[in-house]
């Protein structure tokens, strides 16, 4: 009788080794935790890169901001996450979702998210793909990478271009005046936390009646 395995093509051990090495490198590159079972949308699946001034929110904060965004966007709403990948990841964890979301991010590792990823450099605030229409998002959540007025001002151009009106900004408490000046947003009671404590006091700002007060 023929061996059942005969008709399964076998890879040469050399090819197999090369393939395994490739997968291993890929896993390490994406910071995938193989032992924990991997969800590409979970916070920390892509490691923080401090050189890019990245600081992920704690799980609770990301969940809270994601929920707020969904409510604010409304049924079938469109949400843009500008330099706020941990909120994007939380939004993607929600199954059977009734909203769509885009991530605008400088870190190209996020391109694993496919078409929803848009490369974004705040130094060129309106250098956006043509299919990203002005005022096409029900809410924009933004977390400018640096605590500088220049960074906020440029990110604000992007936010104002994208949003139909609602803005949820996360930045340092020291930016309160600039946030009001450039975006007309006011500080909320909700205090966002990060997975690693930051030296700077961090706050959320909105320009609409939110659930964060």
UniProtKB/TrEMBL annotation:
What residue stretch is flagged as signal peptide?
Answer: none
Listed under catalytic activity are: L-lysyl-[protein] + 3 S-adenosyl-L-methionine = N(6),N(6),N(6)-trimethyl-L-lysyl-[protein] + 3 S-adenosyl-L-homocysteine + 3 H(+)
Answer yes or no on keyword Cytoplasm: yes
Keyword Methyltransferase found: yes
**What's a single GO BP term from this record?**
methylation
Q: Which GO terms describe its cellular component?
A: cytoplasm
Q: Name one GO molecular function term.
A: nucleic acid binding
Main localization (coarse): cytoplasm
Q: Which UniProt keywords apply?
A: Cytoplasm, Methyltransferase, Transferase
Where does this protein reside within or beyond the cell?
Cytoplasm
InterPro entries per the UniProt record, alphabetical:
DNA_methylase_N6_adenine_CS, Efm5/EEF1AKMT1, Mlase_EEF1AKMT1/ZCCHC4, SAM-dependent_MTases_sf
Among PROSITE patterns, the record links this protein to: N6_MTASE (PS00092)
Recorded protein name is EFMT1 methyltransferase
Q: Gene behind this chain? A: Eef1akmt1
